[in-house]
Design a protein that fits this description.
451 residues, alpha/beta, Rossmann fold, UDP-N-acetylmuramoyl-L-alanine:D-glutamate ligase, Protein-Tyrosine Phosphatase, Chain A, 6-stranded mixed beta sheet, 20 strands
């Protein structure tokens, strides 16, 4: 295992934001760095211009890469682990690690790692705000915001990182002081192939944790509850109802915590400004992490009362003719969308669809039939979702976001809600979920003739 990177020959696979950060840090540490990417120089110019002098660039494919020339390879999360180049690197015995593993070997401050299928960004942001409000110097990054490599050498008390399954593929020594698994639901099967492989990757967040570390789990989540947990790690479970194994739960409209023999109110549900049962879970898990890091309940409550949520996550956009328009573009898998629509009672018009990640759409179709009065489908999964909906009558297919919003507005009546919660990735029509959400917001603005 390499811990001294001076004079090492390092290959960075995949550029973009993560690859730039890894290449900069490797260069700073004295390594000879090569960056390779399947995209060409023109497509990568915005990132390529940020690379330090002396970094060799091999763009437009990996054909010229000789794996035997390198001591180490750092892989970006967007590059699948089992594609030919990473596979050949492992076969050659060259150490292959993710960017978060590379950074973690050099970070000396305690780390809070948040993983799960849904809610990671909101929970990570809340934890960071709670620690900052408590007067701590905090770095928030990973899968949200700046890469973890940018934290190396910084003056921080805590590192708070959102960690994806893609990043966990390439860890070896990555070890949080506090780890969170918010939930595990079917996702990314286009890359991980099986649910069991995906679950196993999420469990890697605690594989190096030990005595003195804390693991926070969702006691209501079936897959999280089947994990083989480490014996010497402090386990804190949260749930909606009070179970014998739960340390946090909802009681009389309040989030109650009982840890180390102390019972306290964490916050009142009425104080939470972000809607949905899933956001109650996010707030509780963030509060538990902050408590474990020494933050007081008063500080946690103050943050909960002031936090208005992140863009593209059940984000109110406008109310037009008494119809509410909500942007939940971050609903990139079926479970996320199910949680977003469960509070509606046939007063919902849903806009859904996008890139196919290999999901089973039958649970989505059942939920739409129960909660929605109409649905507008977009993207490459539109026909598959429509097929699952069967006899559900009010189904429209749109070729653009603008058309989808117009069709949804015609299906909606006063006191209804038009919700963009796609249950799919965005890459068939958009750059990312932010681009998709922005297109929705612009299309809603266009309904009123606004600029």
């Amino acid at each position: 295992m390499i811990t001294d990177f001076a004079n090492k020959k390092a290959l960075v696979i995949g550029l973009a934001r993560t690859g730039v950060s890894a290449a900069k840090l490797l260069s700073k540490l004295g390594a000879t760095v090569t960056v390779t990417d399947m995209k060409n120089e023109r497509a990568l110019k915005d990132f390529s211009s940020l690379l330090p002098e002396g970094v060799k660039k091999m763009f437009g494919g990996h054909d010229g890469v000789s794996v035997a020339d390198y001591d180490l390879a750092v892989i970006s999360p967007g590059v699948p682990w089992d594609t030919p180049l990473p596979a050949s690197i492992r076969t050659a015995g060259v150490e292959l690690i993710s960017e978060v593993e590379f950074a973690a070997r050099l970070i000396k401050k305690p780390l809070i790692a948040v993983t799960g299928s849904n809610g990671k960004s909101t929970t990570t942001t809340l934890i960071g705000l709670m620690l900052k409000t408590a007067g701590k110097k905090v770095y928030v990054g990973g899968n949200i915001g700046p890469p973890l490599c940018d934290a190396v050498g910084g003056d921080y008390d805590w590192i708070v990182a959102e960690i994806s399954s893609f990043q966990l593929e390439g860890i070896k020594t990555f070890k949080p002081r506090i780890g969170l698994i918010l939930n595990i639901t079917e996702d990314h099967l286009d890359r991980h192939t099986t649910v069991s492989a995906y679950v196993a990757l999420k469990a890697r967040v605690f594989e190096n944790m030990g005595n003195g570390d804390t693991l926070i789990l969702n006691g209501d989540d079936n897959k999280s509850c089947t994990l083989a947990l480490p014996e010497d790690v402090k386990i804190i479970k949260f749930s909606h109802a009070h179970h014998s194994s739960s340390c946090a739960w909802i009681e009389n409209g309040k989030a109650i915590v009982q840890v180390d023999g102390q019972r306290m109110e964490l916050f009142a549900l009425a104080d939470l400004k972000i809607s949905g049962a899933h956001n109650v879970e996010n707030a509780i898990s963030a509060g538990l992490a902050a408590l474990s890091a020494g933050v007081t309940p008063d500080t946690i409550r103050n943050v909960i009362r002031s936090f208005k949520g992140l863009p593209h996550r059940m984000e109110p956009v406008a109310t037009i003719d008494n119809v509410a328009y909500i942007n939940d573009s971050k609903g990139t898998n079926i479970d996320a969308t199910l949680k977003s629509i469960e509070g509606f009672n046939k007063n919902l018009v849903l806009i859904a669809g996008g890139s196919n990640k290999g999901a089973d759409f039958s649970p989505l179709a059942m939920a739409i039939s129960k909660h929605a009065k109409g649905v507008v489908l977009i993207g490459e999964t539109a026909k598959a979702i429509k097929k699952e909906l069967g006899s559900f009558e009010r189904v429209e297919i749109a070729s653009s976001m603008k058309e989808a919003v117009i069709k949804a507005s015609l299906l909606a009546k006063a006191c209804d809600t038009v919700l963009l919660s796609p249950a799919c990735a965005s890459f068939d029509m958009f750059k990312n979920f932010e681009d998709r959400g922005d297109a929705f917001k612009k299309s809603v603005t266009d309904l009123t003739g606004g600029d």
